[in-house]
Structures are given as structure tokens and as C-alpha cells.
Amino acid sequence: MFTFDQLAGFIAVAEELHFGRAAERLNMTQPPLSRQIQKLEKTVGAELLERDNRKVELTPAGRAFLDEARRLIALAERAPVTARRIASGRSGHLRIGFTAASGFSILGPLLEEAAEILPDVDIDLQELVTGEQIMGLQTGELDLGLARPPFDSDVFDSHLLYREAMVLAVPSGHPLADLDRDITNEDLKNEPLIMHSPTKARYFYDLVVRMIPVQHANVIHTVSQILTMVSLVAAKRGVAFVPHSATLLGIQAVEFLPLQSSVEDPVELHAIWNRNIRNPALSRLLRALEFGDN
């Protein structure tokens, strides 16, 4: 295998087309430079230079090899810099999981901050429910999650991003919208409900049934995504309990009404990450955002 010294010697001769000037440029004498070129040609298995007492010229093989030699030298010079940037968190990849609801609320502003803090880090986004994010964080397939509680605080560190209220989405012109007050359990007694899936949207399902004695006989649709729920409300299929951030969806023909509740702003979204952080870019982001002690 050839050495980088041999490549550097060949590049110098190829650019100077003169062994004496090339040797001077490399701060060496001409005989060892000639030996380097001979060893390089033997390793490559082709004559790279035509030389006589008057001139030095590149062979066709030499011209082709020159481009590759320059590329190899550039990579060798760049590799330590790249390694240092990745070790410091200035380069690399950051894989972020997010719930659908966070996608139309906090995800955009968070990505803007991340881009300012880590301009040379590639960010990979994956829309996943909380359970899938937790699995990804445990296996190392994700670096950061935007997810709902609960999660194991012995395994994961976290930062509360925001809290918000639950509201009732109703079709425009619905009689409940004329009450001009918080909606009570009694108001919902005979309303057709679009409900969260108890498996795929477990966090919202548990939250709603703790807040409101849901009449399961009234449930006509069970879905997992907030966008789907609001779209079904717009189609006058029923009413739905959604986080206040759903108002940002901008879906027409839907009104959002306050709910009477003993818990103020019960909906939580957390940034969560494995306590055993292996990604320097994540550590750098967490420090800059002042999340936890990182």
C-alpha cells in the first residue's frame, strides 16, 4: 500500500514537472523523492511519469491518478478536523422523534433554535407516538424525543417544554358554542364523541377519562391522531377532546370551546433523552437550550 508521503511527493512532481523543484518544495533532496515515486509506481502497477534528462511529463495513468491522489490528501487533511467537530458536537447527526401534535406546535421553533446552535449538524426527524420514541431512545435509534409522560426517570432525563389546556372541538354553529361558558360533563351527556385510541393514543385517552366521565356508548369513532379527530369534527361526525394547540391547525368549520376542569393546563409535552448520552451534538444542544444539567 502506498503512503501519504508518496502521494504528496507525486503531487509535487506532477505539479512542478521537475524533480528538483518538487524536492525543494517538499524540503527534501531529489534522490529520496525519486525513490518514493518509484515505489509508488510499483505499488500502483503503472507508470505515472515519463522522465528523461530534459523533462518530466504525466502519463495518461498519471493524470488520472493525480486527481485521486489530490482527493485522498484532501480527505486525510479533513478527517482530523471532522473528528474534532463531531467530538465537540459541531458536526454529525441528530435524530429527533416527535408526536404529531408537537409537529404543529413547538417542533418548528425548536428546529429553528437547533439550526442556530448546530448549523452543521444534520437533523433527522421521525414522527412517532411516545411509546415508539421511548423504544428508539433505549435502542439508540433516536437521540431526542418530544413526547408525553409517563417515562422512566431512572433511564430518561427530561425538560418540560410546555403545558396546555384540553378543549372541546365542535362543528361550527354547534349549539354548545352558544352557551358562552365552560362546557360541563352534563353538556356532553348526549353528544356523539370522537375518542382517542386507548392503545395508540394512550396519554390523551387516560387524560380525558380522568377529566370527564366519558359515556362510551356515545363514542362513534376511535382514532389516534389529533389532525384526524379535528377533520372528523369538521365533517360533523361528532365532538372531540383535543389539546389547545390543535387550534393552530387552521381547519375550517371547527370551533374550540373551553372545558370545565379541576386541573389547569393538564396536557404536557416534554423533551426526553437517554441519561447515557452518546451523541456530542445532543449534549451541545441541551447545554445551549439549558435543558437539565448537560
Overview of the structural elements:
- The chain starts with a helix and ends in a 5-residue tail after the last helix.
- It folds into 3 domains: 4-87, Orthogonal Bundle (Arc Repressor Mutant, subunit A), CATH 1.10.10; 92-162 and 268-289, 3-Layer(aba) Sandwich (D-Maltodextrin-Binding Protein, domain 2); 166-263, D-Maltodextrin-Binding Protein, domain 2.
- 40% of the residues lie in helices and 22% in strands.
- The chain has a 5-stranded mixed sheet with strand order 4-3-5-12-6.
- The protein has 10 helices and 12 strands.
- The chain is an alpha/beta fold and 294 residues long.
- The longest helix has 28 residues, at 60-87.
- The mean pLDDT is 89.
How confident is the prediction overall: mean pLDDT? 89
User: Which residues form runs of ≥5 with pLDDT under 50?
Assistant: none
Biggest sheet features = 5 strands, mixed
CATH topology of the largest domain: D-Maltodextrin-Binding Protein, domain 2
The spatial strand order of the largest sheet comes to 4-3-5-12-6
What is the CA–CA distance across the termini?
A: 44 Å
CATH architecture term of the largest domain: 3-Layer(aba) Sandwich
Distinct helical segment count: 10
Oligomer: single chain
Task: Name the helix and strand elements from N-terminus to C-terminus, one letter apiece.
Answer: HHHEEHEHHEHEEEEHEHEEEH
Total number of β-strand segments? 12
SS strand fraction: 15-25%
CATH superfamily of the largest domain: Periplasmic binding protein-like II
Helix content bin: 25-40%
CATH C-level class of the largest domain is Alpha Beta
Work out the radius of gyration: 32 Å
**What best-fitting shape do the alpha-carbon axes yield?**
rod-shaped
Which secondary-structure class do the elements indicate? alpha/beta
